[in-house]
């Protein structure tokens, strides 16, 4: 009875905190949506792994790396700038003023994507044939150039929907796109088999179809209401880039963190099957961050809204509760992926079981990532994006150095260890900076009383 009373009291406290209640409700749906998306992606990965083999998974990893790097560079931080500009201009002015920021971002993306398409098409052979010495990857790498704008447009739309607090619609987009992708994969695999089907589907479903689906709610919830209003404040391209470019530098750091290991393993491994095993370990370990990503997509625009209202205390309470809730809810996932990794990897097929230790190592990094909470989200929308850029850069350099040292000797295990150390470093550095800047920790580590108020 005593435990039931404690649970009821906790639930009442959550409901009384309107900001955290809003984030929790939005995050619950987001987490459910992301969970469904992850399940669908897992089904897709299992089909690809079992029907197409580890070598195709590895080839898809290299093609995705080229496309992802091009997307990050051509985006120039614009998608994150939407999370800062749109809530701010909507709050201060109106929806039409916020919409002009989005419209200018689309035009900039179109220009940058043209440049990126040319660079990817003509530059891919240098990577595939010369550096990686895997010419079989070249045709698909060059094909990815044709879909670059669609990947950019889809990302911008989904971030914009979060900025106007239409998180559910962004989640519907992800579910719809991944469901279509799995359905097409099943049809093609059992009806029109081609060894390169998974790569073609990545371009068509992840690029073209996703871009089309994501624009529909933008038109309904953003363009149509904004068209009825008058723009009250003009925003220049230069002003948008002034905010977005430091975020690009942050993403370059994340790019190193996310893709440097695959980039170097592409050179190290003689058989793309080894890279395919590592890629599945990476994507599977990210299951541990599903709830965190769900929370972050909802909490970032809310942090921006509260901060620009001057309600820092509400930011503190909301972020601390979010970190604690997410960590505790994730404990079962941590345990399964760390101690049941051999069984999890066996689902992909016998060729992937060898990666079980690698999965366990990578999951440890996600434990730290989850415990530290929405570090990037808080810093990026409170005017500290340049500081976070520096922190992320330090983490990236650590990973780069460790990859150079460890991968030649330990292969995929060296890559996994480098990832864990790098991820833990920048998250903890960000946590410490938030404490110094705002006077409180947002991280939640069991048995550490980090949420004790700072002395004045």
Largest sheet: none
Low-pLDDT parts are: 1-7
Proportion of residues in extended strands: under 5%
Number of helices: 18
Integer count of domains: 1
The count of strands amounts to: 0
Between the first and last Cα atoms, what is the distance in angstroms?
40 Å
What letter string, H or E per element, gives the SSE order?
A: HHHHHHHHHHHHHHHHHH
C-alpha Rg, in Å?
22 Å
Structural class: mainly alpha
Overall pLDDT confidence: 85
Backbone shape: globular
Helix share of residues? over 70%
What does this structure look like?
- There is one protein chain.
- This protein is mostly helical and 456 residues long.
- Helices cover 83% and strands 0% of the residues.
- The chain is built from 18 helices and no strands.
- α3 crosses α5 (95-131) and α3 (54-75) crosses α7.
- The chain is globular and about 55 Å long.
Give a concise summary:
The protein is mostly helical.
Q: Could you outline the blueprint of secondary structure elements for this entry?
A:
Elements: H1 2-16, H2 18-52, H3 54-75, H4 78-92, H5 95-131, H6 138-143, H7 148-163, H8 167-191, H9 197-226, H10 237-268, H11 272-285, H12 290-308, H13 312-339, H14 341-346, H15 356-372, H16 375-381, H17 385-410, H18 412-438
Helix pairs in contact: 2-3, 2-8, 2-12, 2-13, 3-5, 3-7, 3-10, 3-11, 4-5, 4-7, 4-10, 4-12, 5-7, 5-9, 7-8, 7-9, 8-9, 10-17, 10-18, 11-15, 12-13, 13-15, 15-18, 16-17, 17-18
């Amino acid at each position: 009875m005593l435990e039931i009373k404690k649970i009821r009291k906790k639930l009442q406290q959550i409901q009384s905190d309107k900001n955290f209640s809003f984030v929790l409700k939005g995050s619950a749906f987001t987490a459910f949506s992301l969970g469904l998306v992850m399940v669908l992606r897992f089904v897709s990965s299992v089909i690809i792994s079992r029907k197409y083999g580890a070598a195709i998974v590895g080839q898809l990893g290299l093609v995705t790396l080229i496309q992802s790097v091009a997307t990050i560079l051509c985006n120039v931080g614009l998608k994150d700038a939407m999370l800062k500009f749109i809530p701010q201009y909507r709050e201060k002015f109106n929806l039409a003023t916020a919409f002009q920021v989005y419209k200018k971002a689309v035009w900039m993306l179109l220009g940058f994507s043209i440049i990126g398409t040319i660079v990817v098409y003509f530059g891919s052979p240098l990577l595939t044939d010369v550096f990686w010495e895997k010419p079989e990857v070249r045709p698909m790498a060059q094909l990815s150039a044709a879909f670059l704008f669609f990947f950019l447009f889809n990302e911008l739309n989904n971030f914009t929907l979060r900025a106007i607090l239409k998180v559910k619609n962004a989640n519907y987009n992800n579910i719809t796109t991944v469901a279509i992708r799995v359905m097409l994969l099943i049809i093609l695999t059992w009806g029109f088999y081609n060894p390169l089907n998974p790569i073609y589907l990545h371009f068509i479903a992840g690029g073209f179809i996703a871009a089309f689906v994501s624009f529909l709610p933008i038109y309904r919830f953003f363009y149509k209401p904004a068209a009825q209003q008058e723009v009250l404040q003009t925003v220049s391209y230069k002003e948008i880039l002034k905010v977005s470019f430091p975020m690009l530098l942050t993403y370059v750091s994340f790019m190193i963190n996310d893709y440097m290991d695959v980039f170097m393993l592409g050179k190290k491994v003689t058989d793309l099957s080894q890279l395919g095993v590592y890629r599945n370990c990476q994507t599977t370990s990210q299951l541990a961050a599903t709830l965190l990503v769900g929370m972050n997509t909802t909490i970032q625009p809310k942090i921006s809204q509260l901060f620009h209202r001057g309600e820092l205390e509400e930011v503190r309470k909301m972020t601390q509760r979010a970190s604690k809730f997410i960590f505790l809810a994730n404990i079962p996932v941590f345990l399964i992926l760390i101690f049941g990794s051999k069984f999890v990897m066996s689902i992909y097929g016998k060729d992937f079981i060898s990666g079980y230790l690698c999965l366990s190592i990578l999951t440890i990094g996600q434990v730290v990532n989850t415990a530290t909470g929405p570090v990037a989200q808080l810093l990026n929308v409170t005017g500290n994006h340049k500081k976070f850029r520096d922190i992320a850069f330090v983490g990236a350099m650590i990973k780069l150095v460790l990859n150079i040292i460890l991968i030649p000797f330990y292969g995929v295990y060296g890559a996994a260890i480098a990832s864990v150390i790098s991820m833990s470093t920048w998250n903890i550095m960000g946590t410490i900076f938030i404490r110094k800047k705002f006077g409180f920790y947002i991280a939640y580590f069991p048995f550490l009383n980090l949420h004790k108020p700072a002395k004045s």
